[in-house]
Amino acid sequence: MAKLKEKAQLMSAQDLKRVIRRIANEIVERNKGTEKMILVGIHRRGVYLARRIQKIIEEVEGVKIPCGELDITLYRDDLTTLFEQPMVHSTRMPQDISGQNLYLIDDVLYTGRTVRAALEALVDLGRSSQVQLAVIIDRGHRELPIHADICGKYVPTSSDEVIEVKVSEIDGKDEVVICERDA
Description:
Elements: E1 4-11, H1 13-31, E2 37-42, H2 45-61, E3 67-70, H3 79-82, E4 101-109, H4 113-125, E5 130-138, E6 150-154, E7 161-166, H5 168-171, E8 175-181
Parallel strand pairs: 2-3, 2-4, 4-5, 5-6
Antiparallel strand pairs: 1-8, 7-8
């Protein structure tokens, strides 16, 4: 596996915080309030981003917002090419998703395959009223007809580049960087 070499910082911790706040506000606007809303973070970083969005919405709106965690590992169509031994996390939903408005949260939208797997996993959990996708970065290169309903930033990339959204809970700091693969 090729190592990654950091090229540039795309967002500082403050920039990322601002984008997360904007996404939280847009989710509430699209939902026309907080009724029937469930935030769903895709493991790994999407879970922490969803929790941050949850906290902001709760502070602003003054109501408790349900937030779930979705593991898509076993729904991936590239599982055998990515992992020799996949790391399976747990899926936790705070309540039945049937009839609810789900806001799927992830860090980077690339080929669309992660989102496809997430949608398939959600179907197994119930029939929601709607699912919308919110991401920090959309980097293009779609292989499936999937788009983000809410996007922090569009960053055109080459296929040799990788965008990393770093969160303090996993990476020890908050930032977004663009890297290139070392040959």
